[in-house]
Amino acid sequence: MKSQPSTPGIERKKRQARARELLQRLGLSDRVDYHPSQLSGGQQQRVSIARALMNGGQVILADEPTGALDSHSGEEVMAILRQLRDRGHTVIIVTHDPLVAAPGGAGY
To answer: Which stretches of 29-73 are assigned E, i.e. beta strand?
Structure first.
């Protein structure tokens, strides 16, 4: 019997339900069956955030979260990171963008 990679302690259906809930929360419920190449840069960033949250982590380390995005997508990603902060997550952002680096990401 071939075992599949899994998140410790979480069976497949629970993992799938958790993934769908996170994607819905990040505005990607209509993109569940898409491949990465079919997603915009902003959508790919949101998938990265969902992956970071999948195991219930409380710390998000975002390395240049807006670096490859247009200004609208950058604003969306920063809004999501602020929401996560407001929900009690620790969000650490590494960036060269002065708008993102401003206190609280005030530029976005």
So the answer is: 59-63
3-state secondary structure of 93: strand
CA angle (55, 70, 56) in 5-degree steps: 5
State whether residue 92 is helix, strand or coil. strand
In angstroms, the CA 94 to CA 62 distance is 6
Six-digit token string for 64:
């240049």
pLDDT tens across 54-98, in order?
A: 888 899 999 998 888 888 888 888 998 999 999 999 999 999 988
- Is residue 42 in some structural domain? yes
User: Does 4 map to a domain?
Assistant: no
Give the Cα separation of 32 and 30 in Å (integer).
6
8 Å CB contact between 66 and 42: no
- Whole-prediction pTM value? 0.73
Q: Is residue 1 part of a domain?
A: no
